[in-house]
Design goal:
Layout: E1 7-10, E2 23-31, E3 34-38, E4 40-42, E5 46-47, E6 55-56, E7 63-69, E8 75-77, E9 80-84, E10 90-96, E11 101-106, E12 109-112, E13 121-126, H1 132-136
Antiparallel strand pairs: 1-2, 1-7, 2-3, 3-6, 4-5, 7-8, 9-10, 9-13, 10-11, 11-12
Length: about 140
């Protein structure tokens, strides 16, 4: 079984950048108490190991890729906020240690990804940029 090991995180200098550059995807590295994402330049060879290309990120925003995509073929990461067809609430994507799986969580309802097809799930935002979306359902 092959699984893509990919992460995303928010850059430390995100306030200085256009919104579409706030987040970066790639390999996660912690080095000398700093957290970095190394961009993937070639899927067959992996990341570029030149230190000057490492992008420093906010450690609290590091999110694992679930290996799933939504109805728009957008990658679903831990920490994303999603809408599920047939539900009128926003769900946060979380890792559940007890069952060793990613789940969609909405205070009163936990949904397993196995119960939905990818065309029934849509990434709306993430818990770091728009936490108020999750509060609306309470």
């Amino acid at each position: 079984m092959s699984r893509e090991h990919l992460y995303k995180a928010k850059r430390v200098n995100w306030r200085e950048l256009p919104k579409d550059e706030w987040w970066v995807e790639g390999f996660y590295v912690k080095c000398r108490k700093h957290h970095y994402i190394l961009s993937v330049y070639d899927i067959d060879y992996g990341f570029d190991e030149r230190y000057e290309d490492w992008i420093e990120v906010i450690s609290e925003t590091v999110c694992r890729y679930t290996s799933l995509t939504d109805k728009n073929n957008r990658k679903i990461f831990e920490g994303d906020i999603v809408l599920v067809d047939g539900e009128d609430k926003y769900f946060s994507v979380e890792w559940d240690n007890d069952t060793a799986r990613f789940i969609m969580n909405c205070e009163s309802l936990i949904v397993d990804f196995d119960n939905y097809w990818n065309y029934q799930v849509e990434v709306i935002s993430n818990v770091f940029d728009n936490p108020e979306l999750l509060e609306e359902g309470e």
